[in-house]
Predict the 3D structure of the following.
Amino acid sequence: MKMALRSILGNKGRSILTMLGIIIGIASVMTIVSVVNGQNQQSLKQFEAMGTNRISVSLSLYDGRDCFQDLYNYCNGLGSDLVVGVTPSGMASATIVYGTKNSNAMQKNQENMFNESGAVRTDVELPPDLYYGSDQYAVCNNYKLEKGRDLSFLDIRQHSQVCVLGARAARNFFGYSDPLGKDLSVNGYPFKVVGVYAEKDPDSAFSQDNVIIFPYTASRLLSPGQSISDFVVKAASREATDEAITRLNGLIQKCFQGYDDFDFNVVTHAVNDFCVVDMSNFYLDIIKDRLYCEEKDGAKRRSAQTALFLILDTMTKIMAPILAFTCDEIWQSMPHRADDDGRNVVFNEMNKPFTDYALDDKAMEKWAVVEKLRDDVNAVLEAARAQKKIGKALEAHVALHAADSETASVLMQVADLNLAELFIVSDCQISNADVAAGSVSGTGTSYPGLTVEVSEAKGEKCERCWMHSTRVGEDADHPTLCPRCAAVVAKLPQF
């Protein structure tokens, strides 16, 4: 120790330079880590703004004909409890001019888009991103109108020369004047502004607010001969976490047996059935409300996240022997537990069944009843939608009536569950009353003694979770929210 001190004091210049190098090195590392973390947070924010239930679809015809209409009709025919929107996602290329404002000139401003501190300058006019869309572009991309109207189905059919602006694009071209009804010159063609979207991410370098949306049929003017092949489909409770994990256990056991028998076809079929039947058609459908609307760190939301992690972790390991490269790519991008080997997925043993979460046979029979009831309820919801009694499933009140003791016994098995959440409606009750006049009813297929009654849900629509409730507005600070959403929003950071 004394020798070290003497050496430091005897070579003060060298010691100072060494210390300075260490300090600069540590500061550089800390700066890089901070920047990377900041970029990660910003990217996450952008993905959350777009929505996590979007499905990208690539579809084209050999002869180059428009295939969007077929996709549009198909997706809308699935019902709003499965699909809430479908739209092209192709980009357009054009010069936008309004008065003295020109998108080509704005291109040069990208060199000065950041201030001295590295933050995005909101006063710089940047060229907008141009997209082709349908009347469902806004719902697919989580935009809300601030003024005017959105693209309509007639705009698409009639090849109307109209457009909708993002908040930043409107500000860049029109300042603080009202853009509605004014014409933008787009490659020399006049396009009337019919709407403006509300601001989404004002602080982003590549803002989702700096966009202009055209009817996809306008491609005949802006990109003659272009075939649009990229589309976005947006898919529409207390979640059945334990049931999902129990079904996952069944998948694990079936796949283990398939590998032991060198019957890889059994493994691939089991995984496919699990993804389509158990996950997509049931579990993923009913947990959306919990993931989107519950408190961020609340027990309900975290339980769903835990189930999703266990499912992803298990399926990645199970499929690794068959899809080695794909599964390892997933493995490198996902979080891990402390005892995982992060180098490669094949260095990790496949998960054993999660017995701590598993349901017994009696409990699984209960969930089998829920699935059968859900099929019967969905059939009557579709009938009510066809008769224009309701629009979306969340506009519905469902009543379940038992005509015999056997059906009544079945309904009592599930009476303790939140059936409204499982059926994705605003309200669901087991009722002894007669079917109300003016409602839509149907007889159950799985349970002939069951009558499903659908009517319009009472109360107002919560603008956050979209459920209808007579309790919307009870919280004076959040008059447009239901009590659940008001409680969650109250815990969010206030700016």
Q: What stands out?
A: The chain is about 45% helix and 15% strand. Residues 12-50 form the longest helix (39 residues).
